[in-house]
Structure formats: structure tokens, C-alpha cells
Specification:
alpha/beta, Rossmann fold, three-stranded antiparallel β-sheet, globular
Length: about 260
């Protein structure tokens, strides 16, 4: 059981903050009542049926350095340009701020009213944060990113079957809560996920906690490295439909549909 009495200094800072949003006048599409938030990269948006859909949980998985964080920051930067906010939960050891500033071509100081980056220290804090997200999502917040969802989950695992079962159940509860939040608050939830070796089968790896993510996700995206330098392959596994695959290249501005001289990961 995850304690709700963790010392969360980042939560106290968040409670005292306020969101400020501006209107850019950009025409954002709505299909079947869902807001579609584009990345600004044509091939990426086509593979993702226009971009991130509010009310949906989008699951993106891939090996390290496959481009998951760059994809999330691409959408974060574009949402900021269009006057929308992002709540970014970073569980990784490194901060995404420098890369975000590169992609957005601006300083985080100029974005921090709209882009909130929060760092839970362990799986327990992550659970508390997920439970309290509904308190922090303000009008204008349209994207929630968890980068990565399963890092603290994997670190919490040990040799005890009882502990691992409890952690598995807790992860399922967290993702279910995020799905409910996506529906209730009409936000796009983007879950980045690590991979693990597949015991049997044709693929060499599978997403961590695949059964949980498959059950709750509306969209599943797989990212791979390509043969060319800086190339990344993005595949939409669910829902089915064409186009479902595209090739992207790292660049200073995030992703590009064409190879660039300088590649950043």
C-alpha cells in the first residue's frame, strides 16, 4: 500500500503556483468532440491521426534513446505555442528543461507558467501525485506527460512476490486513474514507457507492464532506431489504420522529416 503521508516538497510549491495562458489564435481541430493537439511535424501527426487527442491515453514505448522524450517535448512545445499548458511528470534522472528550451527555441522561464515540470522521487510519491493531479489541472492545461511511467515501478520491485504483486496492482490503479482524468478533464495523457526483453516471440523487446498499458491505452505507439544516423521509426500499433508508420530524424528543434547536419537525442 502506498502511503499518502509522503513528504512532497514539490507538491507544496505546486499548490502556491498559478497558471497563465495566452490565446495564439491558432485553429485547433476537433473531431468527435476531442481536441487534437498537433506536434507541428507532418509525418508524426499523420501517424498519430492528427496528433494527441484529448480524452485519450496515448502509450509510447521504446528502447533508451529511441526518441520518446523528444516526442513528448515536441508536443509540449507546440502546445505552448498554441496557448495550452502541459503538466510534465519527470521520473528520469536528467531534467528535460534544456531539451525543451532547444525545441521551443526559448527559455523555460518564459514557459514555466504554462509548462509545469514535477519530479516525484519514488513510486510512492508518483502514486500520490497521480491521485492529486485533478487538483492541479487548470483550465488551459491540455497535456499530461509521465516520463517515464514505469521507472520508479521497476526500481520498487524486489524478490518478494507479495511486494511485486502490490506494485503491479498499484501501477494498474495509477493508469486507471489517469484514464479517468483524461475523460473527466478532457486532457491528453501521454505515457512514456520503458521496455523489457521478451522471453519468447519474434520481437526482441516488449513494453514494461504490457497487459496494464494495453488495457487502459487508447493509442499505442512504438519507437525504434532507424538504420540512418539520427533516424527514428514511429509505428502506431493501435488503433489500426493507415498511415501507421513514419521516419523521423533528430535535430536541434526536436524532430524533422528530413536528415539534419546536427542530431540531438
Amino acid at each position: 500500500m502506498v502511503s499518502r503521508h509522503c513528504n512532497l516538497p514539490f507538491m507544496h510549491r505546486l499548490r502556491s503556483s498559478r497558471y497563465a495562458y495566452h490565446s495564439s489564435g491558432v485553429d485547433i481541430s476537433r473531431v468527435s468532440g476531442d481536441l487534437i493537439l498537433p506536434s507541428g511535424i507532418g509525418i508524426l501527426d499523420r501517424v498519430m491521426n492528427g496528433g494527441l487527442h484529448s480524452g485519450y491515453v496515448t502509450h509510447v514505448y521504446g528502447q533508451a534513446a529511441s526518441g520518446k522524450t523528444t516526442l513528448a517535448l515536441q508536443f509540449t512545445a507546440e502546445a505552448f505555442r498554441q496557448g495550452f499548458g502541459t503538466f510534465y511528470v519527470n521520473t528520469e534522472a536528467s531534467s528535460p528543461i534544456n531539451r525543451l528550451e532547444q525545441i521551443a527555441n526559448g527559455t523555460y522561464e518564459d514557459m514555466e507558467d504554462s509548462v509545469k515540470i514535477i519530479t516525484p522521487r519514488n513510486f510512492g510519491e508518483q502514486g500520490v501525485l497521480v491521485d492529486d493531479l485533478d487538483l492541479y489541472v487548470r483550465e488551459g492545461t491540455k497535456i499530461i506527460v509521465i516520463d517515464t511511467l514505469t521507472r520508479h515501478y521497476r526500481l520498487a520491485m524486489d524478490e518478494s512476490k507479495k511486494t511485486n504483486f502490490a506494485n503491479h496492482r498499484e501501477l494498474n490503479r495509477q493508469v486507471g486513474t489517469l484514464k479517468g482524468l483524461a475523460r473527466k478533464r478532457d486532457v491528453a495523457v501521454l505515457l512514456l514507457n520503458q521496455v523489457t526483453s521478451r522471453p519468447q516471440g519474434t520481437e526482441e523487446f516488449e513494453p514494461v507492464a504490457e497487459n496494464i498499458l494495453s488495457f487502459w491505452s487508447d493509442v499505442t505507439i512504438k519507437m525504434d532506431t532507424g538504420e540512418a544516423e539520427g533516424a527514428r521509426i514511429i509505428r502506431r500499433l493501435t488503433p489500426e489504420g493507415e498511415p501507421s508508420i513514419g521516419r523521423l530524424y533528430f535535430c536541434d528543434g526536436g524532430f524533422s522529416p528530413e536528415p539534419q547536419t546536427d542530431k540531438k537525442q
